[in-house]
Amino acid sequence: MSSTSLQRLSGISLLVGSVLAIAGGILGIFSSNPADSMGIVGSLIQFIGATLVILGLPGMYARQAQRAGIPGLIGTALMICYILILGAFGSALNAVLLPFIATHAPALAQSEPPGLGIFFMVGGLLGALGGISLGLSTIRASILPRWAGVLLMGSVIQVVGDFFQSPIANLGFMLVMIGFVWLGIALLASEQHDARVQSEFSTSATRV
Asked: pLDDT higher for 18 or 30?
């Protein structure tokens, strides 16, 4: 696969995935019952969105790899782990297992295994470190929008919100996904720019 094709697919994957993740998160906000159909649909949408974002991250890093360097690579890997744990796995859990438990064992649904909480806490910490590392690397690289890199640091807000069980956790998640929307659009725009430049270069070479 050419770098141009990888960049295009990554841009589409990030854009569509982050929009779906935002839509799923909004549906989840208006659902208070784990067995509610709106919450289940929102979790499924968020699962699909998180999966697409994960698939788009390697191409995003490849676009700025030379300037983002090792910190950018580490940040990308950590963000993949973060989205895999809290986005994909967490959403799948909320969509499939939690509604079943809430329906057949309501008392059990009021608590969670201690190991699961630690698992999600580790995922959040990885996201905080990944958001800072990838965000700063994106800002420093100056290839993709710098403010999108700032938005990726919203993962820190999500971790703090989850720790204190505050609604600001949702704000942090939204900021990260908006950052990925911006990066997806930027990847598609730069891909079109590169294709135009390459076409003009080929035309000039033919004339010569």
From this structure: 18
Instruction: Check residues 176 and 167 and name the one with the higher pLDDT.
Output: 176
Amino acid letter at 39? G
3-state secondary structure of 43: helix
Concatenating the DSSP letter of every residue in 46-84 gives HHHHHHHHHHHHHHHHHHTHHHHHHHHHHHHHHHHHHII
Rg value, the chain, Cα: 19
For residues 56-69, one letter each, b for 16 or more C-beta atoms within 10 angstroms of the residue's C-beta and e for the rest, the string is bbbbbbbbbbeebe
What mean pLDDT is reported for the chain?
Answer: 87
Instruction: Look at phi and psi of residue 142 and say left if phi exceeds 0, alpha if psi is from -120 to 50, else beta.
Output: left
**Phi (first) and psi of residue 98, to 5 degrees:** -60, -40
Which pair of tokens denotes residue 86?
């809290």
How open is the CA angle 97-100-103, to the nearest 5 degrees? 150
Euclidean distance between CA atoms 134 and 115, whole angstroms: 28
pTM for the structure as a whole? 0.88
- Per-residue DSSP letter, 31: -
Residue 127: HSE in the Cβ half-sphere, 13 Å Cα cutoff = 29
| Amino acid identity at 130 | G
Long-range contacts of 159-163 (CB under 8 A, 24+ apart): 159/124, 159/125, 159/127, 159/128, 162/120, 162/121, 162/124, 163/121, 163/124
